[in-house]
Amino acid sequence: MSMPKMRRDMNAIARERLAARRAAERAATPAVPLVSPLAPAGGFPSLPPIAGLDLSSVAAGIKYRGRPDVMLARLAPGSVVAGVTTRSTTRSAPVLDCEAKLAAGADPEAGAAFLVNAGNSNAFTGGRGVESVEAVTAAAAAALDLPQSRIFTSSTGVIGQPLPHERIIDALGTLAAGLAPGGWPGAARAIMTTDTFPKGAVETAELAGGTVTVAGFAKGSGMIAPDMGTMLVYIFTDAKIAQPALASMLRRLTDRSFNSITVDSDTSTSDTLLVGATGRGAEVTQADEAAFEAALGAVMTDLALQVVRDGEGATKLLEVRVTGADSDADARKVALAIANSPLVKTAVAGEDPNWGRIVMAVGKSGAKADRDLLSIRFGDILVAEKGWVAPDYTEEAGAAYMKQAELVVTTDLGLGNGASTVWTCDLTHRYISINADYRS
Amino acid sequence: MSMPKMRRDMNAIARERLAARRAAERAATPAVPLVSPLAPAGGFPSLPPIAGLDLSSVAAGIKYRGRPDVMLARLAPGSVVAGVTTRSTTRSAPVLDCEAKLAAGADPEAGAAFLVNAGNSNAFTGGRGVESVEAVTAAAAAALDLPQSRIFTSSTGVIGQPLPHERIIDALGTLAAGLAPGGWPGAARAIMTTDTFPKGAVETAELAGGTVTVAGFAKGSGMIAPDMGTMLVYIFTDAKIAQPALASMLRRLTDRSFNSITVDSDTSTSDTLLVGATGRGAEVTQADEAAFEAALGAVMTDLALQVVRDGEGATKLLEVRVTGADSDADARKVALAIANSPLVKTAVAGEDPNWGRIVMAVGKSGAKADRDLLSIRFGDILVAEKGWVAPDYTEEAGAAYMKQAELVVTTDLGLGNGASTVWTCDLTHRYISINADYRS
User: Fold this and answer.
1) Between A and B, how many CB-CB pairs are < 8 A?
2) Which UniProt keyword terms apply here (chains A, B) (predicted)?
3) Distance (Å, rounded) from C-alpha A219 to C-alpha A229?
């Protein structure tokens, strides 16, 4: 059954009213992005130099004008690199190139470089996209005196338009000349697209051989339902660690950080997380692994939450905790069903303690659930239990809680010990405004 | 890692600006629902009487004031009933009661009745919800002189609040007195919640024994990603057909109609589709089955598309066709990934021919796909092929096409013969306005 059979005429009066309403809505929504109300109050954190790491950024005019849009990170000889990339079947040419280079595991003695542009994702650009990656990595290898196999590139921005890679190549001289240990703020800004603030994080770990630093930056802020990590994340450390140990740590931590956030359930074609360890600081011995993993995990979760805090249009940060599930996998299904539900997300935007929509999301999740064993809490407030509203719950208490900028909703399924936590943001008019004319 | 670790302070200036913007947006969005611009131009169709069927409706004040909100359909002795209900694990008390009665397959000689209220879904209401269904069905059985096993009820509206079932019981006398063959428009209006127009459809089938009629009505219009059918659908026919034949037809047709639409990817706790066949008209012999199934399928698809046309905030109807997939199941995965993508739906709202978001959705769908074999069409316009934009495609042609109210996007995966079609609507400011304060 197809549409020709359907009545096609429009209600002319309704159309006119609709056009008027759209115009009014456009007028009411400022075109200049505000800084997210959930942005960290202190601004971009002060990130210390990492021995063996230099950063640089430049305004190359890829798409944006008058702002840095290409970032270069150079890692000294001896640095190991690990990474995780999107599992999207339509992933971009630079993602495929990074995957091949990570799998090949080239000799770290040469050093390495990460070269990233914003404004164009070089995704779905066919053979020409592959040629762009080849041209950029070859030019960067020559400019930095590195093997081409150690040049990792990422591109973020619009899909399906040819990357003007010559602008990146032309900028390589300026980028190389600008390399400096303190280049963090410019590098973090250069990778932004619809982000409203740059995202950085730092932790230290006390190892037997001394203190090491883990610091990095990330970008969001739409098309965020990572199937590995968020769109682009770069983390660096001076720790000395074997590549396989770093890679396996990264896989574990990614599931609890970047793979546990969602802005809009849409998965990017460009998701890339790269970690470079220069090895100039203390060694991560077996006894130190837990301490180092904790620091790396803290930086990853901090950056992941900053991505949610800058989710397109976000005004509320929602932590979705699920406990008592039959398995961790079931808990994750329920948590993602809640976090991705447009009805839950609009209720949060409206500060409406509409717990019925949580019940709906549990029901559609596909996880094992028994309606009459469910309980739901908003913060510490018991909202529902045993399949119905809790006797002491009041709508006033729920409504007061929902006014907070940061919310925790806990759903206990009452079945077993499976648990999962996922973070998301609300769904607001601004998300619509941003995405109904991002490209045009 | 939990939130206490995160910086909690807010950017005071950003908050103030946000509050001002929200106020402006609220002012720009009328509180009174318009009729959807996609509503059929002719209004509610003229539905003929069905021999053996009487309909009635009444304003019982369940939640709404001054409009009908309870509907009664009485089917004469000899009528068979088939139905499909939601698979949500948190489905409502009336859904569970319908399931039990459909499974028990009681004697049709007594006749049957469908009794439906809007304004309260009687979902997640614990033991009290079950008591409400018991009380209503017992009272209706007495009032209509039917066995309680032949009273099928549905409830739609807010979740988690006790159903004021005594108001339904008090209205039974008025409902019974008002039963009449021509009660279609009132019945269709009585089941509406956020719907902006009542939805009806009719077809006839020429059987060997004569012409039979299939007519029915449905409601939407949010929480629509049916896991069986949409929220509430009632279809009637005078055909004489065995219950098992009707039930198996219904399962087949549901997959191609109500299970192929999505407004917001959220699945209701109340989804119920009931079909009553009075058997007063011609018999559906084996030779007639295809003709009857075609008529029933046409009514179901017509109603399903009307639900999408009245999706909350909808201004565009999008038909998502997927061909060339490795299997039908893979085609469906891709079609649903496209149809449920907030980024695709906002692009449609913004009349933006942003085919990169289609590529993204293919990539995240989980279906087998090869980026370099993909092709995408907007209507008859070839937009992308072989992993990149088509040589003759122009942005102007795409933008002109997107201005239509009804759009067809075809994605060919170039792999096999799997195909699927799904219908959805755009995601607009009005969806946010409706759902950010539906309850409060």
Assistant:
1) 337
2) Acyltransferase, Amino-acid biosynthesis, Arginine biosynthesis, Autocatalytic cleavage, Cytoplasm, Multifunctional enzyme, Transferase
3) 11
Query: Across the interface, do A18 and B29 touch by the CB < 8 Å criterion?
Result: no
B429: phi then psi, degrees, rounded to nearest 5: -55, -35
Say whether A230 is catalytic. Answer: yes
**DSSP state, A240?**
B
Q: Give φ, ψ of A153 to 5 degrees.
A: -115, 155
Domains of chain B and any CATH numbers: 53-309 (3.60.70.12), 317-436 (3.10.20.340)
Partners of residue B28 in chain A, C-beta under 8 Å: 21, 24-25, 27-28
Q: What angle do CA B13, B18, B20 make, to 5 degrees?
A: 100
- 């066919």: which residue's tokens? A126
B126-144 and B165-177 helices cross at what angle (nearest 10)?
A: 20
ipTM associated with this complex: 0.74
Q: Do A350 and B436 touch (CB under 8 A)?
A: yes
Q: Residue B244, Cβ neighbours under 10 Å: how many?
A: 11
Known catalytic residues of B are: 230
d(CA B198, CA B189): 5
The answer to whether B225 contacts chain A (CB < 8 Å) is yes
Instruction: Return d(Cα A433, Cα A30) in angstroms, integer.
Output: 9
A-chain residues within 8 Å CB-CB of B17?
34
**CB B213, CB B48: distance < 8 Å:** yes
DSSP B117-160: EEEE---S-HHHHHHHHHHHHHHHHHHHT--GGGEEEEEEEESS
Give CA angle at B323 (B319, B326), nearest 5°: 135
Which of A328, A150, A369, A428 has its CA nearest to residue B89? Answer: A369
pLDDT for residue B148:
96
pLDDT (tens digit, 9 = 90+) per residue, A287-337?
A: 998 999 889 888 888 887 888 888 888 889 999 999 999 999 999 999 999
Q: Bridge-partner residues for B381, per DSSP? A: B378
d(CA B259, CA B226): 6
Distance of residue B273 Cα from the nearest chain A Cα, in angstroms: 18
CB within 8 Å: B124 and A158 = no
Q: Express each pLDDT in B203-219 by its tens digit.
A: 999 999 999 999 989 88
DSSP letter assigned to residue B163: -
How high is the pLDDT of residue B265?
67
**Has B219 been labeled as part of a binding site?**
yes
The catalytic residue among A153, A194, A230, A323 is A230
- What is the residue-wise DSSP string for A424-435? EE---HHHHHHH
